[in-house]
From TrEMBL:
Keywords in alphabetical order: Chaperone
InterPro entries: GrpE, GrpE_head
Protein name: Protein GrpE
Any GO BP: protein folding
Organism: Nodularia spumigena UHCC 0039
Molecular function terms, GO-annotated: adenyl-nucleotide exchange factor activity; protein homodimerization activity; protein-folding chaperone binding
Amino acid sequence: MNKEPEIFRLSQEQRKKLVQEVTYLLKEQVSLQQALREQQQLGAEAKEELFLELLEVLDALEFLQNYVTEHIESVPKSWASLPKALASIEKKCLGILSQRQVKPIDFQDSQPDFSLCKVIDIEVRDDLENQTITKIVRRGFRINDKLLRPVEVITSKTQK
């Protein structure tokens, strides 16, 4: 039961047509791969835009939570549990984002790291050296290893 492989003989015309078809298929494959990469890029950009919009909602929640906590004595007694409820909503939102690899940047340095931070304001402070972070205005976030939103900070400047 020893089978010899069949040998096909192609005419010059058949060979030329086969080469043309293979060339066409290879070009089509490259074109489809490029289209797929472009679609994946568009999808990733749309996701990032959605995450940035959700972070705006999270910022508003955080602002409201801080405001209510700081002014708890001036709000109606029925709102006493509001800070805790807002903190719970914030925690859930952060959990949802975390499941999608969007995580807050834990930034504790006193000097800005310009690969992670964006200085949005400068305040004159003679008690601090130049470019000392005086306040973190908005938390920064990463998606996987990519910066999604920088940490927004206010830094000091000495008046000389």
